[in-house]
Amino acid sequence: MSTPRTHTPARQAAAAAIDAPGTDEAEWRAARLADHLPRLVLPAGAVVVVAAHPDDEVLGFGGAIATLLAAGGPVHTVCLTDGEASHGPATPSARARLAARRRGELAAALGELGALPAPVHAALPDSALDEHEDEARAVIGELLDATGAALCVAPWENDLHSDHEAAGRAARGAGRDTATPVWSYPVWMWHWARPHDRRVPWHRASVLPLAQAALDRKEAALARFTSQLEPRGRGMPPVLPPQELAHHTRTFETVLH
Asked: What per-residue confidence (pLDDT) applies to 181?
């Protein structure tokens, strides 16, 4: 995950929503989404999971990845940026070090989920992915073609983070190019939305229940992202404080399709 740029009024509004105090997980638990939303069945065949930043794929779909791998299904991942902007303004050398660190964290995290091929790293600019959507779409499309994917899973294109939204749009475009179905996973939505929020297309939402073994693997994977779990500097909280992690360690995952 990374924090969004705020160069435009739309981005400023999105950043304000993300920076504001979020919806407590207790409110989501009280909504009993797993009881009220339909359940989806994971498909047979190869699955390509797209992330805007290292950790998005684990936050939004890590339990499902572990479930697919345990069943012997092939899973491939593509990370569009290296997340080098997650700690805010920094020198080029500091960003390069953070990018390298986050690549290492991602490799370790994916290893916790199961036996996965090495991720495809597109190395597009963090916090400027919307300026490189065509490149992202091409990278995703190439992987969908190469793997003969039965499904592509990507960040939700209305997540209020410009990179997540660009990744979602790029995946939708690549899905159309290759006739591949696309599911979307929300990341920041759990922070700024609330149960029954009209900004969320609940009619498209379904849940994927997680066995305890898959949830354990997901939690172990999330623990690998130490750059996002530690304070970013003096007086700067982590990108992923405990209240955010709580949204992503439920006994189910939610996708929009």
From this structure: 98
